[in-house]
């Protein structure tokens, strides 16, 4: 009896039209964005090593990591605003610790960016199924367009990096294309 009373006391007063499937989807997305940030951090710091020394790649992947960390926090704020409960999971380590070349890192990043985008699309679909217009608008205005832009940018960088090739080409690409002006 006490347990049930405690749950009633702890129930959110602001929760309205927020389906438990939507809440679980937001939690999955929070955890995926935090994982993406973790992977991008791993890549960024690989390129910062003295035996790799490609500061443009480091800067680019650090910005991606920061962006995904911020997205996770934005989703946490949304979850609280809607009366949901944040459920964080263990963060899986990246599949590898050595990223080889810029081409390999960009290909990995592109795959991850597409996975994150698909997850946002799935989340939007869940909101649509439950007639949650506010959640659909939130996902549209905060994530979907930006994620498509990120996919395009990574894809362009991957193509350019492949075109210039390893060695001096990769070094020049790092210096001229990845450095923020």
Précis, in short:
The chain is mainly alpha-helical.
Question: Could you outline the blueprint of secondary structure elements for this entry?
Answer:
Elements: H1 2-10, H2 20-48, H3 55-81, H4 102-129, H5 133-164, H6 168-178
Helix pairs in contact: 2-3, 2-4, 3-6, 4-5, 5-6
Give the CA-based shape.
elongated
The number of helical segments is: 6
State Rg: 19 Å
The helix/strand series, from N terminus to C terminus, equals HHHHHH
> What's the number of extended β-strand segments?
0
Helix content: over 70%
Gap between N and C termini, in Å? 62 Å
Major sheet, described briefly?
none
List low-confidence stretches: none
Computed structural class:
mainly alpha
Strand content: under 5%
Mean of residue pLDDT? 90
Oligomer: single chain
């Amino acid at each position: 009896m006490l347990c049930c009373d405690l749950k009633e006391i702890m129930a959110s007063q602001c929760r309205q039209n927020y389906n438990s499937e939507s809440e679980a989807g937001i939690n999955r997305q929070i955890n995926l964005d935090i994982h993406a940030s973790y992977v991008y951090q791993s890549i960024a710091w690989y390129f910062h090593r003295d035996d790799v020394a490609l500061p443009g790649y480091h800067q680019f992947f650090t910005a991606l990591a920061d962006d995904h960390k911020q997205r996770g926090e934005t989703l946490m704020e949304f979850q609280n605003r809607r009366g949901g409960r944040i459920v964080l999971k263990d963060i899986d380590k990246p599949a590898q610790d050595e990223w080889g070349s810029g081409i390999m890192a960009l290909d990995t990043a592109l795959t991850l960016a597409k996975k994150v985008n698909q997850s946002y699309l799935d989340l939007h679909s869940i909101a649509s199924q439950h007639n949650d217009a506010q959640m659909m608008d939130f996902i549209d205005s905060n994530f979907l367009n930006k994620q498509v832009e990120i996919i395009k940018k990574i894809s362009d960088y991957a193509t350019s990096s492949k075109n210039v090739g390893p060695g001096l080409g990769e070094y020049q690409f790092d210096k001229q294309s990845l450095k923020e002006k």
